Amino acid sequence: MDLRLESVGHHYGDMEVLSDINLDIPTGKIVCIVGPSGCGKSTLLRLVGGLELPTTGRILQIGTPPADSINPLTYVFQDFALLPWRSAEGNISLVLEDHKLPSSRVTEIIADVLARTKLTEFAKAYPKQLSGGMKQRVAIARALAVNPAILLMDEPLSALDSQTRELLMDDLVSLWTREPFTSVYVTHNLNEAVRLGHSIVVLSRRPGRIREIVDVAIPLGDRELGDPELERQQKHLWNLMRDEALAADKELLHV
Amino acid sequence: MSEIDTTSASKTVEFRGGGFAPQSRKWVGVAVFIVLIGFVELGTRVGFITNLTLPIPSDVFATFVDLWQSGLLWKHLVPSIMRLIVGATIGVSLGIGVGILIGLFSLIRAGLIPLVAAIFPIPKIALLPLFVIWFGIDETSKYALIAFGTFTPTVVATYGAVDNVDRSLIRMGQSFSLSWLSIVRKIVLPGAMPGILSGLRISLAIAIILLVAAEMLGAEYGIGAYILEAGSLYDLERLFVGVAILSILGVLVSLVIGMIEKQLLSWRV
Lengths: 255, 269
Description:
heterodimer; A: Rossmann fold; six-stranded mixed sheet; 7 helices; B: MetI-like fold; 10 helices; flat
């Protein structure tokens, strides 16, 4: 299943946050969206997954999601959004309970996604017992459990320290190499973007418009920390964003 | 490290990070009671507190033992506890129900919050005659009074608790296409539980207060009736026995809620 955004724009009251976004998200690719803070990248992601309605334009699903996909458009949130009163496996079963799956199938899915995210021994742990990185792993496991056609990731690594971030980036890469998934990945971290993105969409400051789409040709699995080509791409992205970020920083917030 | 000049005067950095973190001090509460009662005992015996102002605590205790041995204690306590349980159960469950509806539906919120705000400050005791006419002089009017009194604080605590449920968790539920009922049952309700339980502490204390009022409605037996009778006879020992029983009841209720909290809210950080 592909996604297509057709001249999508969005307003909050009088404030225009996104303007004329045209974008294709092809199957099996990770599309990163970067931009200065307040450029509407998180809003864009909420529009894509149907959590908000765009003021103008439309978002199209092209083709049908695979039959075994329980929740085709699935989010991974920056703040993890785990229920603190449920254990890791309880949080995963939450999203399966509404779908009348046989309980053996549910146990099977939970065991599988916990194994894929290296969490098997933490199945019974509660969120308060887990570190930030572990919590995000649980959230990723929960997202994988519904077999999404497209993963919508909203700054999934931004609440983590940089070491944990490196580790989880490796995990995401190995998850993708084993079984390529489609993803829209919003981040403000350019290093994450060049490590994980097949293409990187650079948004301007508010109202967010697409400034440039950068393709990174190196296969995900071959992108090493400190690769000179990636460094060059990252620098290019930074040059694109630098002035925008500077101007965005000086803007007054109208909340 | 060699850059530091060790010859100049040195002192340990002062600690200034203490306090502002409540710690468990189990026996202090008990000690406060003992000291206070001991003081009154001493005062009434020595004479700097006259017998007209306060009874001698040991006499109160003796009266309590009498009450126990005569079997009258249970005769008074059982109907009172019955009234508390029935009245508070009705009031609290209606309150939680209405509170959740207010929390979930804007229309109900807009319609009922002013009404609840209007009912809340009414002293329910002032409505006693009305309750007798509505529900008769028997148990029903007593249940109704206690139910009415516990209802409003429960509603206010519940909708506040529902309002405070983490919106990002609800958005998560929606993003996984959970049904409306699932979101309410599995996210909103458990998320509101801490607020509902702390509201329950207040509601149940109010229920005990209203018990005495309810038993003004012609009750033969009951702690409230016992206190009222002692009061009208100016029998301070018996008055204080009754008051002490209500206090103990309050402490027990609070302990039970504490235990429920420990059970249900063990997930809290």
